[in-house]
Amino acid sequence: MNIRTVIILFIAFLACYLTIRFQFTLNHTLALFSLVVAFPLIFSIQSAFKRRDRALEYLSRFKSGLMVTYHTFLQAKKLSEEDQMVILGIMNRATDELVQFLTQGKPDVKQVYDRFGEIFEFTDRHRKEISIRLILRITRYMRDVYEGLAYLVSFTVHRTMFAIRYFAYIFINTFAFVEAPLLYETLSQGTHVWLMYPLSALSAIILITLYNVQRQIENPFDNIGLDDIQLSNFKLNIQPNQMEERFM
Q1: What is the predicted pLDDT for the residue at 10?
Q2: How many angstroms separate the CA atoms of 190 and 160, rounded?
Q3: pLDDT tens track for 51-107
Q4: 3-state secondary structure the chain
Q5: Taking CA 165 as the corner, what is the angle to CA 158 and CA 42, rounded to the nearest 5 degrees?
Q6: Furthest-apart CA pair in the chain: how many Å?
Q7: Above 50 in pLDDT, residue 232?
Q8: Chain Cα centroid distance, residue 18
Q9: Closest CA to 239 of 53, 8, 57, 70
Q10: Does the pLDDT of residue 117 top 60, yes or no?
Q11: What pTM value is reported for the model?
């Protein structure tokens, strides 16, 4: 329920009032209107759900790559406890800033990439403590991290086709106008013309609710809607005290 729901209910009730007041009738099949409303709406919802599934896939790939990278750093026995704490802090800050970018749109994209680039900078500074074998493994695992990162960044910039969503919204509102004279044609022969109001309202609410669901799934990171992705589950979530256990 939002402002779009209020608008389309107003349109539906206004159309019913004008139809009854001036006795507008329309004798036409609903097949054409159903097609122009249902096709773009269903297409948009399917695209949004596919995007959400892909986002979960790349988030999983991102976190698994980051976790394996972290455990690879733990295998570098020559790294001091302080250095281990430094790389842990870098990785935690990188994931925190990515989550902040996905949910709030800030910091900017360059800063997010630079934060993950600090992992490679740390590796380059400690080549003496990290063996070539481990560096190659870190590079390979970070490829999955960057692949997931690149998709998630592009996910927030590129959405489903705007033209299709706009088309669906326009015809949902148009359908609210058209349905009233169609219902009047059916109900005017009896004494239940007042049924136009609840029937029109029901159709309008169903269509606009589906549209609202699509808009909520469009960005599953903004914490609006029941189907949003819980990004906190994809953070590194490793605390310093867990790192200390390695050196005890």
Answers
A1: 92
A2: 45
A3: 889 889 989 989 899 999 988 988 888 888 888 889 988 998 889 889 888 888 887
A4: CCHHHHHHHHHHHHHHHHHHHHCCCCCCCCHHHHHHHHHHHHHHHHHHHHHHHHHHHHHHHHHHHHHHHHHHHHCCCCCCHHHHHHHHHHHHHHHHHHHHHHHHCCCCHHHHHHHHHHHHHHHHHCCCCCCHHHHHHHHHHHHHHHHHHHHHHHHHHCCCCHHHHHHHHHHHHHHHHHHHHHHHHHHCCCCCHHHHHHHHHHHHHHHHHHHHHHHHHHCCCCCCCCCCCCHHHHCCCCCHHHHHHHHC
A5: 105
A6: 90
A7: yes
A8: 40
A9: 70
A10: yes
A11: 0.75
Provide the token pair at 122.
């740390």
3-state secondary structure 78-103: CCCHHHHHHHHHHHHHHHHHHHHHHH
Q: How far is CA 68 from CA 22, 62, 124, in A?
A: 71, 10, 18
Share of the chain above pLDDT 70, in %: 92
Place of tokens 């063996």: 131
- Computed over its alpha carbons, how large is the radius of gyration of the chain? 27
Residues in the chain: 248
Q: What is the mean pLDDT of residues 125-154?
A: 89
Q: Is the pLDDT of residue 161 over 70?
A: yes
